[in-house]
Amino acid sequence: MKSTVEQLTPTRVRINAEVPFEELKPDFDKAYRALAQQVRIPGFRPGKAPAKLIEARVGRTAVLEQVVNDTLPGKYSEAVTSAGVKAIGQPEIEITKLEDGAALEFTAEVDVRPEIELPDFSAIAVTVDPLEVTDEAVDEQLLSLRQRFGTLTGVERAVQNGDFVSIDLSATVDGEDVPEAATTGLSHEVGSGQLIEGLDEAIIGLKAGETKDFTSKLVAGEYAGKEAVVTVKVDTVKERELPEADDEFAQLASEFDTLDELVADLRERVTRVRKVEQAGQIRDKVLEYLLENVEVPLPEAVVKAEVDSVLHDAVHSLDHDEEALNKLLEEQGSSREEFDKETKDNAERSVKTQLLLDAIADSEEVTVGQDELTERILFQAQRYGMPPEQFIQQIQQAGQLGAVFADVRRGKALGVVVEKAAATDTNGATVDVSELFGSKDADYSAEGESAE
């Protein structure tokens, strides 16, 4: 097979391919075997009829169509490989010549990874927040630990912020009951903001047995987005009593004998968290620098495919009714124009990030080991609350294993850049990037899905 490549744009090529007819013989044999299983010819068992009899029964044209359908995907892949084309997305294939006994000619237009001029990574400099561990942050951790060991005691007074209450809820919209909003005996921590908007403000000051009405916008169900009149009744009120922060508590809540040892450990934990946060800020700022300073031509078809995917997901839960989506956006104070613009901007950023990090991975010859791939799969399985075996089976069935591999590789590529960049904090102190990113604490994960 002969093929040539035309560069149409920085992100799109046309492949012109010519396949000699003799190269199609294995495909003809395969087509005859397939048709022999479908065609019943008297005197021959299924699959045993001679090719000439099959051709006489179905016609030469049908055989030729079967051959073309079978051979095109493989020949296209062969042309892409031999030309060294870094194709992304689905090709548009057109048969330009098909003469029985002569040749098969076709063209394939497809988006490709653009050539990207990468900067000197060692010249990148970013500024981040200083690594600070305050006494207040340590005290918050100690308070959180004491709260875990606190006890709840019933009180006769009115509800205060921080109390634990048992409540009944009901709601109406335009005077009609909302069945799915009704519940009884619901436990709630006042001030947590975990339930509907306005609830905490409504119940503060109420005593057990008292009720109050307030308005709130429903976020789910048939009346999602509608203003509702919500009635809350307080059943019980309890306050949390915290244990004293002393050596006895340290022995109860940890492996340490004294409170001082426990506080020192909490300070060390807060320090580790702050280091992870600072490392994440460095990573994000380095990526932002690359996106702002490196020119990356964007394949229109790939961007469009990502936009279409977001739109499909958005209307999927609305029975694919775009008018329903438009109405929902209006109720949320947005518009379809704003949604479309934001979706396109996000898609362009996502595709640009993928192409840029892929180019860096190629330039730096980044590889991904089996252990690294397994570690990412286990992490994602835990994130989705699924057994690893089930998660692996699911991504394999969805054809997403390559996307996970690409995500790990892109993350490592970003890590290469981060380790070569310079970082200082807002106080002017140099940040030791190798110390932050030389540990398991660092997460190099890049944004976006695979553009494969």
Tell me what you see in this structure.
Helix content is 47%, strand content 21%. The chain is α+β, with helices and mostly antiparallel strands and 452 residues long. It folds into 3 domains: 2-112, Trigger factor ribosome-binding domain (Alpha-Beta Plaits), CATH 3.30.70.1050; 151-241, Chitinase A, domain 3 (Roll), CATH 3.10.50.40; 253-437, Trigger factor, C-terminal domain (Trigger factor, domain 2). Strands 6, 7, 8, 9, 10 and 11 form a 6-stranded antiparallel beta sheet that branches. The chain has a 4-stranded antiparallel beta sheet with strand order 1-2-4-3, with helices on both faces. The chain has a two-stranded parallel ribbon with strand order 5-12. The longest helix is centred in the middle third of the chain and has 35 residues, at 259-293. The chain is extended, with a radius of gyration of 32 Å. The model is unreliable at 439-443 and 447-452 (pLDDT under 50).
Average pLDDT, all residues: 88
Secondary structure category: alpha+beta
CATH superfamily of the largest domain: Trigger factor, C-terminal domain
Rg value: 32 Å
SSE string: EEHHHEEEHEEEEHEEHHHHHHHHEH
The coarse silhouette is: extended
- Give the amount of beta strand, in percent: 15-25%
Could you describe the largest sheet, including whether it forms a barrel? Answer: 6 strands, antiparallel
Summary of the model, kept short:
Helix content is 47%, strand content 21%. With 452 residues, the chain is α+β, with helices and mostly antiparallel strands.
